């Protein structure tokens, strides 16, 4: 019998379709064109030696012998214009806001062929600290009302440039999706006096069946109502509304979780295309009692079809508890 | 300069990213594997002659010489179980509803190789009447709280069976996405005394720049804040909350719109993968003043990536007014 499960944080119903269920191993991606990327690509703007092909450089972390380790650059084809004023026009039937904001790219390493999963741990720690610093910096733009840090890995996840990179976008409006989540979180807080995410986290920790990895400061688990196979959350245990508030020590711990999870995807699920996104209050709203930032990681192993588009209900053909068990066992190298 | 546009009906922000804009003609799908499907496939459960491969037949429309024209069958791999009671368990952190409901398939014709766009007009009229009849029938299931009619065409749109078909799903819960739209529509009605969709429709008709096709009873247009390139709405002019209320005469007129639009996609955009979905109040809530059913048609010409997943904001690289102009001119055969 299929189940409908509700995620109280995202407010999404999911059909866990056991009739269509695949065993976890069946999700192994058999990609006929599974070629290894080259270490360097002449046409890639993010490869070492091609720095002149990117837009304005905003930050550079130096590595050994004068080489750089991580670069932050303006997006050459920004979804939102870096210049211009925020202006709102129109009426209730046709609201228009000028498309201004921040759109930058964090080039994760000089190497074209090292996926995020295979960066060494120290490198990943610095990367997460840079995520935080750029998140805060983007929020300082006076036009910014919301900031998203996200990654597209692989063509099926919407990447146009193969070289591993992460993006930061600050929008001049608050996304409706975010507003609705905040409202649900506030409601729960008013009803119970507690943060909804803290309550979910405690439950997941107590039950354990969906937990993949736990350390002192983070819990990585497949949510009870995971939207799609192996959809996973990396959750800070300490209540904190905004990713801006992550400490250096927490960033070090989070790097272990990200490395563990992505390595298990890489080796255990044959390197699927995936997205991740940091869901957070904006940088200057870091102290409220009801929001709780986290990272959501989504391998792209299934397609969104008409039912999902038309209802907002996802169909997940993998049982979250089985997926978690599979990932607990999956090799990391 | 990009624009952020807001859709008051779906409550979605869209970035119209002119910096990344493609000219409409560039969306022509160059598909290397653009093979013509066979007229009959031995392994296809929906082809004439293979009727024994489907589950229970629920309706059959007869054509010439004892052949069938349209069949309705139970889905052999249903997302929701046809048997079992609706039961709600769990608590606010882990809500669970048994996965019961209706999931059936409307096989659009006996031929494997005739896409919906190329069905003759009379056939399409009957198909839309059957959509309505099955929509009403699904709503009679006492476990049903919401009904969706939708179509996946092509692998990129989530089809697993190539033979043209449409699906009907009745869910035992109300989708949160639908609830949020109803709330926005009610709010507009309370503020203005008018249906929000009727107001949008009047505006689109008056402006005309996004209109593709108009007849006495329907308006086909690209919404002001289209989510993706060539995302189009087929809208009944008469206020009616539920698709259950479409009259036979309206179904005849709607068939002309669907044929026109899909033919323009087929010939003008080189037969892209697409989804369509009928967005509607449930069958037994057909008489309210604020909901207004319509069909949303989405060619799958772009990928959903991390930014969309993380914010609910879409990036559309096509200007709706230019897309509409392109489709007005596109050939239909």
Overall pLDDT metric of chain A: 94
Shape of chain A: globular
Query: What is the correct CATH architecture of chain A?
Result: 2-Layer Sandwich
In terms of quaternary structure, what is this?
homodimer
DSSP summary: helix tally of chain A: 6
Count of separate structural domains of chain A: 1
CATH class of chain A equals Alpha Beta
Percentage of helical residues of chain A?
25-40%
Strand content of chain A: 15-25%
Distance between the termini of chain A: 36 Å
Describe this structure in words.
The first copy, chain A, is of the alpha+beta class and 333 residues long. Chain A has one domain: HIT family, subunit A (2-Layer Sandwich). Helix content of chain A is 26%, strand content 24%. In chain A, strands 3-4-7-9-8-13-14-12-11-10 form a 10-stranded antiparallel beta sheet, with helices on both faces. In chain A, helix 1 (121-139) crosses helix 4. Chain A is globular, with a radius of gyration of 20 Å. Chain A starts with a strand and ends with a helix. The model of chain A has no long low-confidence stretch (mean pLDDT 94). The interface between A and B is large, with 74 and 74 residues. Strand 6 (94-98) of chain A pairs antiparallel with strand 1 of chain B, so a sheet runs across the interface.
